[in-house]
Amino acid sequence: MRPFRWPKGGKSFAGWYFCATTGEYIGYESWLERDRLILLDADPQVTGIASQPFWLR
Fold first, then answer.
1. Distance between CA atoms of residues 3 and 22, nearest Å
2. Which stretch of DSSP H or E encloses residue 38?
3. Contacts of 24 by beta carbon, 8 Å cutoff, 6+ apart
4. pLDDT tens, 5-24?
């Protein structure tokens, strides 16, 4: 597991997306991840979304 980090002026497109499905902000590190979050959030069959850095137990 690692924290989200992105330097100001960096080349990546990282940020936070407010997800209506979970009611929380979810971090993303690229445009592709952000676009997938938007698609998942719009799908009524999706009941939960988790961001990349997380622990599986």
1. 20
2. helix 31-42
3. 18
4. 666 776 678 888 999 999 99
